[in-house]
Amino acid sequence: MKQNYINGAWVDGATSSANINPSNTADIIDHYAQADAQQAWLAIAAAAAAAPGWALSNIQLRADALDKIGTEIIARKEELGTLLSREEGKTRPEGIGEAARAGAIFKFFAQECLRLRGDKLPSVRPNLDIEITREPVGVVGIIAPWNFPIAIPAWKIAPALAYGNCVLIKPAELVPGSAWALAEIISRAGLPNGVFNLVMGRGSVVGQAFLNDRRVNAISFTGSVSTGAKVAQAAIGRMAKVQIEMGGKNPLIVLNDADLATAVNCAVQGSFFSTGQRCTASSRIIVEKNIYPAFVAAVKEKLAALTIGDALAAGVDIGPVVDQSQLDQDMEYIRIGRDEGATLAFGGERVACATPGFFLRPALFTDCSNDMRISREEIFGPVASVIPADSYEHALMLANDSEFGLSSGIVTTSLKHATHFKRHAQAGMVMVNVPTAGVDYHVPFGGSKGSSYGSREQGAYAAEFFTTVKTAYCGV
Ligand code: NAD
User: Fold this and answer.
1) CA–CA separation, 467 vs 476, rounded Å?
2) Ligand 1 atom closest to the CA of 234, numbered from 1
C-alpha cells in the first residue's frame, strides 16, 4: 500500500483505492491511500506552519533540491514512464517522454530560483527609493487531472517550490502512481518537513478541503470545465489566488496549399496520439475543399496502419482509453455524431486484444458542420470531426467559432496565411505546420476564452501566479 506524505512522514489514509491498468483490468498496480477531510486538514496545517520559514529559504538550497529531483527523474525516466503508461494508458514511448519532460521542468525551475528579479525605481518624491520585489504566495493547493500524471504535477510543483511556496498536491484518483513516485523522489530532496505534501484522495473530499481552507493561499487546478467552474467559484469566494486550465476543442486548419504529408501527420498525431486524451488534441480538422478528398483518403490510410493495443507492448501506436466511464463517453459521442448526420469514415468500434482493456479504434467523422455537438463539445477521446471550408477566411471563422481557445493550428505553405493566422487565431497557443498538441517545457502554456482562467503556467511566466508583488518605499 502506498501512503500519503504529510509533514515529512509517510502516513496511511482513511481508506485506500486500487490503481487499475486500463490495458489490462486484471492488473492491479497497487493500492493507494485515500485521505479524509481530517487528514487533508493536517496536511494544510503542516504546510501553513512550514510556509514562513520556506519563504525565506536560501535560493541555492532550493535550486539544489529541484536540480536533484530533476536529475533523478531523468535517470529513472524509463521506469517512471513505464509506470505512467501502465496506469494511464498512453504508450510506453509517450510515457517515457512525459517523464523526461517532468525532469527537465524541475531542472528548468532549479535555474529559475537564481533568476528572480526585482526592480529599483526612483521616486517622484524627493529622498525616496522604491524597490519592487516578488515574494511567495504562501501555501499552494494543487489539483491535477489524470491525462498527464507526472508532467502536470511537475509543472505546478516545481515553480511553486522554486519561488518559495509550500505545496499540497492532490493527484487525480485514476493515476496516483506517477504522483506517488514523484513524491517519493521529492521526499528525499532535503526539503524541510511540511514544505511538500502529497494528499491522495477524492476531489470532493481532499480538493474541496483545499478550496475551503483559508490557509491555502492559492489554488492551481487543471481539469474539466465543470470542475474548473466549481473550483473558481470556491477560490474566488474566499479571495484565494486561482489558476485554472481546462478543456479545448482545438482546430487544425488544412489549406489547399498545404504539404499533404505534413497535414496528415499533424492531424493523425494531434488528434489521436495519447488516445486523443490531451487538452490540446485536434478534435476539429477544418479542411479547404480542393484538398479535402485527398486529405481524408490519406488520413484513413494512415489510421488503418496504426496498431491499437496494450500501452506497454512494443510497436503499439495507440493505447487504451483511460477507463470505462471515459470509454462510455467516447462511444456516446460516436452515437451522437452518427445521429447528427456526420459520416463515420473510419473506426469508432471497440478493438479486442489479448487482455481485458478499454481499446477503441480512432474515430474519424467527415461531412461535419461546426454546429454539431461532436464539433463543439470536448469528447476527450480518439474522436475527430473533419469540417469542410470554402476558403482561408471561412476556415479561420470556423476555427474561432468555439467557446474554447487553448491551441489552434494551421497547415499551409503560405507565409501570408500563416502570419495572418498567428495574429487572428483566438487561442493561447498557435501552431503552424506542427500538431496542436506537443509543446516546449520552458515557455508559457495556457489558453484563452473558456479554456483557461488566471495567469499562465510554465516558463518564466509561471512567476506571475506563484509570487506576489511587494512595493517598498525607503526614505534616504
Ligand atoms: P476533472 O475535472 O474530473 O478532475 C480534475 C481534478 O479535480 C481531479 O484531481 C479531481 O479529483 C478534482 N476534483 C473533482 N471534483 C472536485 C471538487 N469538487 N473540488 C476540488 N477538486 C475536485 O478532470 P479530469 O477528468 O481529471 O481531466 C480531464 C480534463 O482536464 C479535460 O477536460 C482536459 O481538457 C483537461 N486538461 C486541461 C489541461 C490544460 O492545461 N488546459 C491539461 C490537461 C487536461
Assistant:
1) 28
2) 19
